[in-house]
Amino acid sequence: MTSGANRADRNEGHKHGISEATFYNWKAKYGDMEVSEAKRLKALEGENTRLKKLLAEQMLDAAALRELLAKKWWGLPPSVKPSPI
C-alpha cells in the first residue's frame, strides 16, 4: 500500500522521464538544500573536476620529464628515478 506522497513522487519521476530510483537518489542528495546551495555545490564539483584534471596533467608532465632525464643521463638506469628537486 503506497501513500499519496509516494505516488506523487513516482508520478513526478515519470513526468520528467527519470526512474523512481534516480528521483530518490536526487532527493537524498539535494532534498534539504536551497537552490543557491545546490548551485554552489554544482560549481564546487565542477571546480574540483577541473583541478583534478590539472593535477593529472602535471603528474604526466613530471613523469615524462623524469623519463627524459633518465634517458639523457645514459649512466642512470631507467628503473632509477631522479630525486625530486
Automatic annotation (TrEMBL):
Biological processes, Gene Ontology terms: DNA transposition
Gene Ontology terms for molecular function: DNA binding; transposase activity
Pfam families linked: HTH_Tnp_1 (PF01527)
InterPro entries: Homeodomain-like_sf (IPR009057), Transposase_8 (IPR002514), Transposase_8_domain (IPR052546)
Transmembrane segments: none
PANTHER family recorded: LOW CALCIUM RESPONSE LOCUS PROTEIN S, TRANSPOSASE
Record's protein name: Transposase IS3/IS911 family protein
The organism's taxonomic lineage, starting at the top: Bacteria, Pseudomonadati, Pseudomonadota, Alphaproteobacteria, Hyphomicrobiales
